[in-house]
């Protein structure tokens, strides 16, 4: 069950709570009307500002065992890498901060492949073998999301940028923004 049970008033403000002034009544009414705890209301408010201008995309693997949601632009900046594994898998991905990604189901159905530096975590579904997201070496504090694993309807445009993963260190030194893409 979410929030407060029917008929229970919204939680009173804590002694160290922010003074809401004239908005206190609106806040309490909203909280009670939607049966949300103070933490749930705060999460809604933070999400509204943190994800401003972003779209909630949903997606997953082929068999449906793995499902996720990710907040990103409707215009996706997708990397097409030519390193050995990306070439073999045809891995094209866009990068998001970890805080913009949520695994909805299937954690127990994921397995991970690593190689070389073992920084990148190539996660994929144990059932169908599809990698719908992974942890990239360039951004170990974020996720690389496969745009072709997103559900239809939320992507407006895809802009593709080639990355020379065969010379990974040089490519990362020369790229001006890739390492910041996993920062909120």
Automatic annotation (TrEMBL):
Membrane-spanning ranges: none
Record's keyword annotation contains Metal-binding: yes
Keyword Zinc appears in the UniProt entry: yes
Keywords: Metal-binding, Zinc
Highest taxon listed in the record's lineage: Eukaryota
InterPro entries reported for this sequence: CENP-V-like, CENP-V/GFA, Mss4-like_sf
Family to which this protein belongs: Belongs to the Gfa family.
Protein's recorded name: CENPV protein
Organism from which the protein derives: Vidua chalybeata (Village indigobird)
Gene (UniProt): Cenpv
């Amino acid at each position: 069950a979410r929030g407060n049970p029917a008929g229970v008033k919204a939680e009173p403000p804590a002694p160290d709570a922010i003074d809401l002034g004239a908005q206190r009544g609106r806040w309490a009414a909203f909280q009670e009307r939607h049966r949300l705890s103070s933490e749930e209301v705060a999460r809604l408010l933070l999400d509204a500002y943190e994800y401003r201008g972003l779209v909630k995309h949903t997606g997953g693997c082929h068999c449906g065992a793995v499902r996720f949601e990710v907040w990103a632009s409707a215009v996706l900046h997708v990397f097409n890498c030519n390193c050995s594994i990306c070439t073999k898998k045809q891995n094209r991905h866009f990068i998001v901060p970890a805080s913009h990604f949520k695994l909805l189901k299937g954690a127990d159905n994921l397995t991970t492949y690593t190689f070389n530096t073992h920084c990148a975590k190539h996660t994929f579904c144990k059932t169908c073998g599809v990698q719908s997201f992974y942890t990239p070496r360039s951004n170990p504090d974020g996720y690389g999301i496969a745009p072709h694993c997103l559900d239809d309807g939320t992507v407006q445009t895809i802009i593709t940028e080639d990355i020379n993963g065969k010379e990974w260190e040089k490519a990362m030194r020369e790229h001006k923004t890739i390492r910041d893409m996993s920062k909120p």
